[in-house]
Amino acid sequence: MAIREIRVVPDPVLRTPCDEIKEITPAVRRLVDDLLETVDDPGRAGLSANQIGVSLRAFSYNIDGKIGYILNPVIEETSGEQYGDEGCLSVPGLWYKTRRADYARVRGIDLDGKEVVLEGHGLMGRMLQHECDHLDGHVYLDRLEKEERRAALRYMRNR
């Protein structure tokens, strides 16, 4: 297990859709260990594999003291709406109000190939959508209103 370095925008791995995990190999098991160890830090709600440089569909989460992971997650359902502050480890120092569904349900598998369903409202719903966006090659800045997105990109260019 290792705490891995977080990739930051504009690293191209963050803009590349991740590949489905077709086989649970020792490398996939190590990836999950690293995701779990790296997300286990106060203030970290979720961490996708591409944020640590691995283009596979996997993420870990740390919500309300519960730490876990999911492989090959797919959003099955969303409902409602929330508009609140969102940040990202790959976009350090920036927090912007972001529109998301209030509720999200994601289906995937665990390391034994068994089905896993994660769901929740509020922060859990936001995290599920945020991490699935990462795995599809998107960062939360893509969801910002036009003017906020411009300001965020300007800030990132000038830091």
From TrEMBL:
Binds 1 Fe(2+) ion. It is an enzyme of class 3 (hydrolase). The active site is at residue 131. Its EC number is 3.5.1.88. Coiled coil: none annotated. Fe cation binds at residues 88, 130, 134. Removes the formyl group from the N-terminal Met of newly synthesized proteins. Requires at least a dipeptide for an efficient rate of reaction. N-terminal L-methionine is a prerequisite for activity but the enzyme has broad specificity at other positions. This is Peptide deformylase. It comes from Bifidobacterium callitrichidarum.
